[in-house]
Amino acid sequence: MRRSGREILALFLLIASGVYGLGFWSLVTFDPDSAWTRYELLDESGRTARAAWHGSKAIALRLEDGLDGPETQNMQLIVAGAHDRAGDPDEAIRLYRAVLEGPMGEEMRPADEMAIVYRIADLHLTQGRVVEAASLAVRIVEAAGAGHVAHSRVPDAETALYTDYLDRLSTDLRGLLPPNDRRPPIAGETPDLLVAAENMTTLGAYYAARGTPPETAAGLLSTAYDLRASLLGIDHQDTIHSALLLGPVYERMGQVDKAVPLYLDAFHAQERTYGANHPVLSLYIRLLVSAYEEQGRMTEAEALNLHMRNIFSDAFGARRYAANQDRDRTADINRPVSEAFPLPASYKPDDLVAAGAEAIPLSKLPHLDEMKIRMASIDETTSMPASLSALLSQCEQPGEALSLRSGYRSYDTQAQLYRRAGPKGRVTPPGTSEHQLGLAADIDVNGRFMRASDRAYRCFEENAFRYGFILTYPQGNDYLGADDGFEPWHWRFVGPRTALLYREIGPLGKPQEFLAALPCYEERAMSGLFLSVEGRDVCLDTLASETTAQDDKAKGRGETG
Q1: pTM of the model as a whole
Q2: 471 forms bridges with which residues in the sheet?
């Protein structure tokens, strides 16, 4: 059968197009350069999903040919973004990870690295993978350090960027881990689950300290607590640590009824560990008393206060506050320092010593002024260096090396830091810093500021008062005029007797008010009047009245001119 010329031409064109198609397919399937060219053309035309497939193919071919250098790494980063935009999270995650784990990741600027870490974490959250996202978010927390503090080593711009990443992740975390019984169970092997609990503790403590909506912190910390309680038991110190972090978050949410069982379990756990009359229990008693008073359970609060009296009487003597306190106040050891009680620019203690020479580990060069603290001798055996060295030794935990980050700061140094901080409000004005007293110690854990999620912090919370230290900026304070005034690294030496008094009868979470009203508390303690009257703190009420009277007097002077 003879074919017409037109039919022969059509057949020829069909065969030619098939050959061309086969050749084109071979090129883009087996030739990396052709596959990459195809990726670029498709991406430019807006066909992102098809482009991403060709991009991954080009990368795979280059890797098969042993081409794993910077050019391939750059392709991985570009194509990861294409899969990200195309809605293919798993392939995007795989390629982003390849970039971080390759030579490009090793040489990448921290800000660029954290941008990729954030994208991976966000993609995991879109798939409901909270454990993986939390692990990555912790990397951002670690990179940020405490950059919101003016004397941080992290530049302000980077800190703002990292904080923004973490704030964005907060919303999705809050949705996936609600702080109630509707949280989905987390499955896995015990070691992996304990790592997950550790990461959620770190991340939850970060959000709790940030002052962001507490639901995010509550979801993370309650998940960590449940994991630790089920895997380690409620008597384990890590479970107790989670309870101490979670309880205050519940209180911020107005859910004191959820905080009380946590405090009770922690109290009884430490009671089983240390015995019924150990001073460590005082921390948990104070937390429970505050919660009971909030609930109006005054009888139970009073019973716990009495138990506190008995513990302290047994441990420290019935006449523990009978000694004269004038020597301490004259030496400025327990004087308040704040905007209401400023120090003159010329103030400099005359008993500064090099902390490194007193067996105190340092974070900075030993000759710097910040590596000095006061001797502040209370008696022949008690001084600030000896007390700090002993406290650091007791609280150093496996994997957590403690060191002094900042001690004494002059008025001029504080002024420089204050100017650098600008309007952020996280640095006290010159003349209002306890560092100028030489009695403040900022503590590092592994070279960065101590965090509430550190095990060493729980040890400080339980034991620092026995060595004469109190936490100046506790959770919920407004001393710094900032949303996140909590500084878990900043510990102030006031001497063992004053710190003991603060733990026993001082206003919980109000150390500066306590020091301002210290003579009143000392007088009541020496008179045996430990308990407040009808649930009110007489010394705080007196201080408030005196402050109001002074303000009114000052206003009157201003009006009369």
Answers
A1: 0.87
A2: 491
Shortest CA distance to 268 belongs to which of 297, 309, 239, 310? Answer: 239
Tokens 């430990």, residue located: 530
Exposed / middle / buried, residue 318 (Cβ in 10 Å: 0-12, 13-18, 19+): exposed
Cα-flanking dihedrals φ and ψ of residue 381, to 5°?
Answer: -115, -5
Q: Which residues have CB under 8 Å from 12's CB, separation 6+?
A: none
Residue 35: pLDDT band (50, 70, 90) is confident
pLDDT band at 479 (very low <50, low <70, confident <90, very high): confident
- 424-453 burial code (b ≥16 CB/10 A, e <16): eebbbebbbbbbbbbbbbbbbbeebbbbbb
Computed from CA positions of residues 416, 420, 423, 427, in that sequence, does the dihedral angle turn out positive or negative?
Answer: negative
Distance of CA 232 to the CA centre of its chain: 23
**Residue-wise DSSP of 215-250:** HHHHHHHHHHHHHHHHHH-TTSHHHHHHHHHHHHHH
Here the tokens at position 125 are 């959250």
Q: What is the pLDDT, as a whole number, of residue 395?
A: 97
Local confidence band at 551 (pLDDT 50, 70, 90 cut-offs): low
Name the residue type at position 85: R
Asked whether 166 and 209 are in contact (CB, 8 A), the reply is no
Burial 151-170 (b: 16+ CB within 10 A, else e): bbebeeebbebbbebbeebb
Distance CA 440, CA 515 (A): 14
DSSP class per residue in 77-122: HHHHHHHHHHT-HHHHHHHHHHHHHSHHHHHS-HHHHHHHHHHHHH
- CA 85 distance to own-chain centroid: 33
In DSSP terms, 444 is beta-bridged to 403, 449
Q: Over the stretch 65-78, which tens digit does the pLDDT of each residue have? A: 888 888 999 999 99
Q: What tens digit of pLDDT does each residue of 388-408 get? A: 999 999 999 999 999 999 999
Question: What's the mean pLDDT in 518-545?
Answer: 77
Mean pLDDT value of segment 96-122: 94
